[in-house]
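Job type: complex structure
Entries:
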Amino acid sequence: MEPKPIDWEKLASIIETHRTRKWNLIPLLQEVQETFGYIPPESMEPIAEALNMSPAEVQGVVTFYAGFSLKPKGKCVLKVCRGTACHVKGSRSILRFVQNELGLQEGETSEDYQFTLETVACLGACFLAPTMMVNKNYFGRLNPTKVSSVLNQYGKSKEDDGSP
Amino acid sequence: MESIFLTINGQKVACLSGDSILIAAEKNSIPIPILCYHPDLKPHGACRLCLVENEKTGRLMASCVTPAAQDMVIQTASPRVLHHRRNIVRLMMAEHPESCIVCSKGNHCELRRIAASLGVGDSGLYPMPNFPSYEQMNPFIIRDLSKCILCGKCIRADHELVVAGAIEYNHRGFKPRPATLYERPLEESICTFCGTCVSICPTGALSVKNTAYVGTPDQETDSICGFCSVGCSLSMGVAGQKVVDVNPSKSRASVNGATLCVRGHFANDYLNSPARLTRPLVRSKDGEGKSIHAPAAWDEALDAVVMKLSAIKREFGAGSVAFIGSSKCSNEENYLFQKIAREIFETPNLVTLSYDTGQALAARIDARTGGMCRVNPLAELEGARVIVVVNADPGRSVPVVDYHIRRAAKKGAALILVNPWKIELNRWAGAWMRPDYSRPSGPMASDFLLALAKGLVADAGYDRGSVEQATDGFDAFYDMISRRNGIAGEAVDAAVRLMKNQKIAFVIGADTLCYPDGAQTADAVANLLILTGGIGAKRSGLFVLLPESNTLGAMDMGMMPDHLPGRVRLDDGGNIGPDMEGFIEGIESGRIRAAYIMGENPARSLPQPDRVAAALKKLDLLVVQDILYTRTAAMAHFILPGAAAAEKAGAFTNLEGRIQMFSPVVQPPGEAKADWEILAQLIWKMGHPEHYQSLEKIRQEIRRLVPMYQGLGSHLQGWIANNPKGGKPAFAMDFPPVSVALDAAHPFIARLSAPRHHLGGGTRTGRSERVRAYGDHGAVEISPDDCRVLGLEVCGKVRLVSEFGKIERSYVQSSRPPKGMAIVPMGENQNDAMGLAGLSGKNRPASFGWTVSRVGIEKI
């Protein structure tokens, strides 16, 4: 399955609102990331042109920050916490379980662009350990059953799409 | 800035406030090891090798980024500092491949040198090789990033010195590497292969490809680059009497600093080409009666040349002998050459190949500015607040000038372009005026420049008092310019706003006179310079982007039909010789019977090369003194092997007016001799009383006769002088309307321009193995609009047909040329592109000169 095609007009209008202000690179990239779910690689050249930078410099910033991705991400981005507190509480098993359930390794996206699996160093919610985030929602005190139900909850919309 | 005092290693030292500890130590000859620091780059603090200890606080800090403070007590090599420094190097070595023995960085590797000096041999750590290396297809640069220590010098040089933006750090943590956009190989990025990063890299991560020699050269000697008119200082590495490596010179007084361009860095391997001439050759017949070039002894060849030239002069008169000098040869050589022509042969027939594409323009501007604008340091261009670029693509013709403009633009200078085509500098352009020569009524460059003058006058955007003082006839100019119907438009208005009440640096392309309004364009630029008070001012100047290393020097030495040495203009009707076209016509009509060509290849570099070659074949005597067996040399009766700049001593005058002396790096190949020695022998054999046995003797004579060249010879560098008699710039008043006639059979304009890796016709660069391997076949660039009209697909071949000839080339769709114009690269395919242009252009009013031609384009 192909990721959603890029809405070039929308991209152009985002770029236009930030034009010629070099210090706007990061807000601009955030807006693109927010809107498209990733930074389309083809957008780096028009962004650089608008801010009078070289495209390689834009790429340097994009690849530096974990918050920006050059690859399309799934509809649901799972961030499994691998911080110390969660580790002590067994987050390695949680991660393995998620990996098995989704058939994904860290940093991978499912073929139907439903799930992306990531790990983070700490979600700052140690009192909920072991924990993970799906998009902007936290799920704490995880165990395999709970993870299954969360995945089902987010996987459901996939079935609704009618895709195989 | 005030002085501050601190103690380093127990020694009281002084430095200026704002200096870093590293600079304070350097000023006082206290060594601190560095890897990521470079004096031309902003301090970065990446390598941490320059750690020093503050005795008072016990803190360790990177001295390159820590400002020195009053009463600091610093230790640069305390046991603690050394312990940490060693550990840093050990960690670097643990990540570094153990390939020193085959690494071409050899003894230039700064990492190895520092490791040795700190006593780090085996790192004693588990090796952690960091990255698979990958091979690049380009013939210039090898990137082996497994040897990268992330000092960021290549990236910073790319951003701060060359301002290209081809590479940047990507990723973070353990992963970062310098990378191009989309992490593609260099040849698919915007990299121009200037090689600045290669020379600045402290390890073997970046190295030169296709070297005949891997390792440290036996010795390194400074020289001046013999390609374009920037005159970069080179440091040439020699092994076994061959130049094997070229880097920017470490001299702090160079034009180029740490930068170079693809030609200077990589194309000097032509010096070792098998086509080099190594002994005098004389045309003779072999056993079967076939005409061949047979080797001869120097004395034999020179005696024969002297005898035959004299015989032709005796028989047909002085005007029957002609001399073509060279913008590639030194001042001394051109001086002697014109002396042979004028004094010994009493002929007015002397010219160089860059007369039409540079010297005539420089002379015109010199006359307009009263000889008061001869010195234009590039430092002033870099410091300029407003830069106007006219008819030029400095990024391809003179890349190091382009870096100066880019650095100025990056610092915020306003850039105004008057160019039909788009160039890389357009990225910074505050205003872009686009002349259009493909339509009869299209605006021309001079129209825009006159409109700028009109706008400045109308807005009172100049200092009237000082202009009136500096020139005569301002009122007449004021009337003339105010009454003109200038073209208006957003770009003109924007440009006038940027130029108002500013000192402005003007950059003008060498082939400006090849356009129908070329003379007017040159005059209008000179007018703007005078109007804005730019003559002799800081942050200003007029930079003529001359084509070759000594175009200006050859002109100053009188190697020009209408000027004597020292830019003394000959009166009209006097002994003014023909220009290049008149020259060829003279041979065709039989008036010129003999030609002596030094260091030029007219049968390749001139327009209508076949006509030129046919003419040269007609000569009773053709003597060619050159370094390569060229198409022209192949037709010669006598070939005298000369020497390239790296193989002799001499002086070039660059486009700034800087006279740069150079000494030989290697001996000329075989029996070849420095060109001035050949000429001196000829003069002696002609029975002339002067015997020029040393270069200094020639220089003395030049200093005596040419007051503007007092700076020649005494130091490594000097400057030419402004008009010693004192001149007054004068406004040009005569701007007759120019119109371009339509030509239905040839509706397009072809602009012939050398790509970055070739200089001019590519006689020398075409002999560089690396440039040949680059395999750029010189695709014609055609605008998308024209591609649509012509029904051209994404790629394919086209035939370009002009009045003078036709060529077949592949093409690419490109946004660089405007509608109606095709950009045709010179230098490729034996420079066949020159076949499109006409020799006569410049003298026919309102027509195109050597580098511009009307063409028809057909799809094949």
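Summary: The radius of gyration of chain A is 18 Å. Chain A touches chain B at residues 41, 44-45, 49, 52-57, 59-60, 63-64 (CB under 8 Å).
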